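User: Okay, second chain of the day. Same drill as before: sequence in, structure tokens out.
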Amino acid sequence: MNQGFTVWLTGLSGAGKSTIAERLAPELSARGCSVEVLDGDEVRTHLSKGLGFSREDRDINIGRISFVASLLVRHGAAVITAAISPYTLARAEARRRIGDARFVEVFVRCSLDELVRRDVKGLYKKAIAGEIEHFTGVSDPYEAPENPDVVVDSEIETVEQSVSKILAELAKRGYLTADAKAAVPREVKGVL
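Assistant: Same drill. Structure tokens below.
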């Protein structure tokens, strides 16, 4: 049985967490991992319906994601979470629950200017104008990780470059048997 682990993708809305998760999952599967993706939006719909966006509700949501991830990891799954997870303490609790050695925190960095530019729904502009309350990174805080295991920058990196960085870290930790340098052969134009 494979060793279970969690790749915890954290970053602002629109930074590219779900896109990276979608590209990382088949790469891990191709290396023999049993992969599960816990996307923050999907978890809110199915596990955390009714929760709002207060700090307490956000922490409850992250607690539920980390609980499910810990169960999957215990059974050898490679878990990828894609959730804003804005608070340092909630991420630290997730690391504790899952296990420090089995938790890989990935900060998906992207500037606010780029996020506003990418935002097809105009949510950032509305939040900046005060039309949306509790919007992470604008009217609610996002506490960026101080010492993440991996930093990817979706503003300047391709998805493939970001995925390759994550695979390299997983290989370094002994979770992958295949050479991470051979990862992500597909060509993609531009960045996220």
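Confidence is low (pLDDT under 50) at residues 179-192.

User: Thanks, on to the next one.
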